[in-house]
Design goal:
Layout: H1 9-18, H2 27-38, H3 41-45, H4 47-54, H5 58-82, H6 88-96, H7 99-135, H8 142-145, H9 156-171, H10 177-198, H11 214-225, H12 233-236, H13 245-275, H14 293-304, H15 316-323, H16 327-361, H17 380-396, H18 399-427, H19 440-457, H20 460-484, H21 496-499
Helix pairs in contact: 2-13, 4-11, 5-11, 5-13, 5-18, 5-19, 6-7, 6-18, 7-9, 7-16, 7-17, 7-18, 7-20, 9-16, 9-17, 10-13, 10-16, 11-19, 15-16, 16-17, 18-19, 18-20
């Protein structure tokens, strides 16, 4: 029976016991870890996308997405504390709901990590190209810096940064904690500076109408903005290193998400109030879909008439500051994004290779995927393969579409973990839990419902792509993985070497 193929939780936990870490993190450290992990890519690159979907109502979208993240994170934390090993949601699902669900979760995580890395690459390209054009006066043809949906041919800078990060992962360059801390400081400082300069010049008339597309638009923007919170699970997975996790984990999770939500709302208010953020309409007054060729054409028409809009910008925050009279500070924002975002791409691709590696070690993917380079001691085959796909995503798709596709995979994985936590409470109530999700019978269903709500709020095209990806995953599973699964063949062991990939760069806080 497929659903009966459960990976032994005792074997997994035996590995975890060998890796026990010192409990040293308090509530403050967890909160700071969460802020560093969450603040970053989404707010830099998705503000324009959210404005086109919800207008000023995107401020409410940040609250909705943050709430869903909070309840999902509380469920995630219990599982992460109980099963602190590699594989993330894939491993948790394997231990509770069986191999088929675990395979689908792992397959969905490909969307979360690889496609997200493509989205960040496109976001990085927008800011760096804007910086070169405005600070140095270099005119770069749109054909070479935008994909087909954005009125170009190929996004070469996005391809380039994806290729560079792939090379760094293959050679195993280790990013120091000090450098990582500096990158986090750069991002937080840049956003703080934006708030300080943009909020004082807010014009309240720009907030009317607040929700031009109704609550459906707010929901759609929340589904996209969810991308801005990805990274919060860094707090959940630190449960094993937390002092008094039952008290400190909720404080760290809710505290960091709360602070980030307030930060995001202030940034959104600064954009909306200073330059306006109403959706761009077509020639006949129809609201155009974000990431569409029609929107790109309308934005080009507005630019020709000298009437640019923030929803048309590929570097919304830097563009806003230039519009309100701070061109040099706008360039600094672009520089900050250019310096900090590559570390996020590295983290996303690192996570992707780790999931692939663990699935390969379980026999669900070909053994070549877990092949280790003799010199660099990194899983170079799967790293290069991942890098190729990330570069192709970044070259031809706009950031909004990539973020939405990534969110579909993330929401599926988080919903699966929330269900797994609830199931394990019933099937194995006596299992040691360093952290227990508060009010699990309420929190877990709300987390599942929240994930389903945001998934349903994604565009029809995105949902169809997710379904198509899931169908492909099922075909691969039954054609290849089912017969070669180690659990299916009775090889139900987890060794220390099976649980982790070889020495690799430490994934940076985003």
């Amino acid at each position: 029976m497929i659903f009966g193929r459960i990976k032994s939780l005792d074997a997994i936990l035996a590995t975890a016991e060998k890796k026990s870490l010192t409990r040293s993190l308090g509530a403050f450290q967890l909160t700071m870890l969460g802020i560093g992990a969450v603040i970053g890519t989404g707010i830099f690159v998705l503000t324009a996308e959210a404005a086109q979907k919800a207008g000023p109502g995107m401020m409410l979208s940040f609250v909705i997405a943050g709430f869903v993240c909070a309840v999902a994170a509380l469920c995630y934390a219990e599982m992460a504390a109980m099963v602190p090993v590699s594989g993330s949601a894939y491993t948790y699902s394997y231990a509770v709901m069986g191999e088929l669900i675990a395979w689908m979760v792992g397959w969905a995580l490909i969307l979360e990590y690889a496609v997200a890395a493509g989205a960040v690459s496109v976001g990085w390209s927008g800011y760096v190209v804007g910086l070169l054009e405005n600070a140095l006066g270099i005119d770069i043809p749109d054909l070479l810096v935008r994909g087909p949906y954005d009125g170009g041919l190929v996004n070469l800078p996005a391809m380039g940064i994806a290729g560079l990060v792939t090379w760094l992962l293959v050679i195993g360059t280790k990013e120091s904690a000090a450098v990582n801390a500096v990158l986090v400081a750069i991002k937080v400082t840049a956003l703080t500076l934006f708030v300080v300069l943009a909020v004082p010049v807010i014009n309240m008339e720009n907030f009317t109408p607040f929700s031009p597309l109704g609550f459906a638009g707010v929901s759609a923007a929340a589904a996209s903005i969810f991308f801005a919170y990805v990274g919060f699970d860094a707090v959940s997975t630190a449960a094993e290193e937390t002092k008094n996790p039952q008290r400190n984990m909720p404080i760290g999770l809710i505290g960091s998400l709360g602070i980030c939500t307030i930060f995001y709302i202030l940034v959104a208010a600064g954009v909306i109030g200073s330059v306006g953020a109403q959706p761009v309409a077509g020639p006949e007054g129809q609201i155009l879909a974000p990431g569409s060729i029609e929107l790109s054409q309308q934005c080009a028409a507005l630019a020709s008439a000298g009437k640019e809009a923030v929803v048309c910008s590929k570097e919304a925050l830097a563009w806003t500051l230039r519009e309100i009279g701070w061109p040099q500070i706008g360039n600094l924002i672009g520089l900050a994004a250019g310096l900090a975002l590559p570390s996020v791409i590295l983290m996303m691709m690192f996570g992707q290779t780790r999931i692939f590696f663990v699935m390969s070690r379980d026999g669900l993917l070909p053994a070549v995927f877990s092949k280790v380079h003799p010199r660099f001691h990194t899983p170079h085959v799967i790293t290069i393969l991942t890098g190729i796909f990330v570069a192709l995503f970044a070259a031809f798709f706009p950031v909004g579409k990539l973020a939405d596709i990534s969110n579909s995979g993330t929401l599926f994985a988080f919903a699966a973990v929330s269900i797994a936590v609830l199931m394990l409470r019933r099937t194995d109530p006596s299992r040691k839990r360093p952290f227990r999700t508060p009010a699990i019978m309420i929190t877990a269903p709300i987390a599942v419902a929240g994930c389903l709500y945001l998934f349903w709020s994604l565009g029809v095209e995105t949902k169809l792509m997710f379904v198509g990806w899931a169908v492909i995953g099922l075909i691969v599973y039954f054609a290849y993985s089912y017969k070669r699964s180690h659990v299916g063949r009775g090889l139900n062991e987890v060794h220390e070497t099976d649980a982790d990939i070889p020495p690799q760069p430490v994934p940076p806080i985003t």
